């Protein structure tokens, strides 16, 4: 009788394949969430760095010419999820706003503001 019930065990069972696929799916989901969060964090630091760079350029321009320049004459940012707008720009005053589009709009750090004298909101800039 034993000779008639030979079992060929050279393959995987359906249950083994399903378990393996489930584990791979869970690991890839966790990896993607971590990757997206790191992209957001990088984009936020790039936005902060760029805003400080704009403030520095404006200060140097003010010292050499006595006037500020508009945002259109300043370098663009190369970061996804960041939109920089000119709130006000005259020869004697400027204010730029960086909107982090991936943040919740109710979050105080979804908008970063820079002008001639300060970086706002202060709590968001202090973690730089």
TrEMBL record:
The chain crosses the membrane at residues 12-30. Coiled coil: none annotated. InterPro entries: N_methyl_site, Pilin-like. Keywords: Membrane, Transmembrane, Transmembrane helix. This is Prepilin-type N-terminal cleavage/methylation domain-containing protein. It comes from Alteromonas hispanica. The lineage of its organism: Bacteria, Pseudomonadati, Pseudomonadota, Gammaproteobacteria, Alteromonadales.
